[in-house]
Write a sequence for this structure.
């Protein structure tokens, strides 16, 4: 009896994972637009599955900050405004600035190799304007530093907050230029990491790489003040 229950649980979890990935991609492509309702029952019917895996997937998306639950068993895609992005930059700048300063002395030659490899992949994604692929490699790049930090809560907050930047559709006019700028900044981060310059890394993360003011032009171009960028790409 116990083992049959376990089999069912694994199957349900796998289905929930598939729904989660599907919805994540649809939100990123703008098929579900910022502010749009996602009805649990209607989605389950369209996918021809029970509501349980749909509910589990939506709960995960809520935890990721991609959807917001309302009071009628439905969800709305989160609206990401310029002001929201400013908060993301300020938050990640403070946290990651502290992290890289703390772990600078522990950067190894293998870490530097990975940083260069991931940044090369980001450069390819930037050239094609592929924001989602860029975000995936960017997570790995920053993860090299975060993985060396013992505080799991800080690591999870950084991951969760930063991920939102790459999970919503944006206007494309200066996207490629913005991503290429980030690649150049990563090269400087690698240089500082190779020198084990703790103070320099922390300052660069806070005052340059995650500076809202230094990225304002790109952010205001990509995200509307009212969070309606999805309808403009």
């Amino acid at each position: 009896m116990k083992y049959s229950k376990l089999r069912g649980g694994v199957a349900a979890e796998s289905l929930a994972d598939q729904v989660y990935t599907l919805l994540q991609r649809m939100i990123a492509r703008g098929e579900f637009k910022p502010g749009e309702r996602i009805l649990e029952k209607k989605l389950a019917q369209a996918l021809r599955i029970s509501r349980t895996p749909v509910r589990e997937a939506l709960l995960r998306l809520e935890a990721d900050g991609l959807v917001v639950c309302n009071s009628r068993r439905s969800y709305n895609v989160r609206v990401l405004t310029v002001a929201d992005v400013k908060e993301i930059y300020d938050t990640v700048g403070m946290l990651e600035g502290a992290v890289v300063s703390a772990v600078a002395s522990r950067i190894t030659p293998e870490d530097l190799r990975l940083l260069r490899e991931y940044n090369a992949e980001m450069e390819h994604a930037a050239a094609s304007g592929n924001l989602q692929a860029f975000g995936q490699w960017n997570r790995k790049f920053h993860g090299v530093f975060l993985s060396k930090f013992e505080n799991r809560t800080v690591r999870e907050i950084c991951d969760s907050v930063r991920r939102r930047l790459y999970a919503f559709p944006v206007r494309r006019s200066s996207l490629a230029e913005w991503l290429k700028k980030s690649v150049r900044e990563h090269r400087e981060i690698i240089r500082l990491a190779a020198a084990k310059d703790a103070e320099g890394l922390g300052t660069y993360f806070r005052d340059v790489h995650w500076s809202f003011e230094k990225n304002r032009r790109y952010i205001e171009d990509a995200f509307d003040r009212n969070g309606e960028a999805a309808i403009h790409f």
The mean pLDDT is 86. The chain is about 70% helix and 5% strand. The two ends are 52 Å apart (CA to CA).
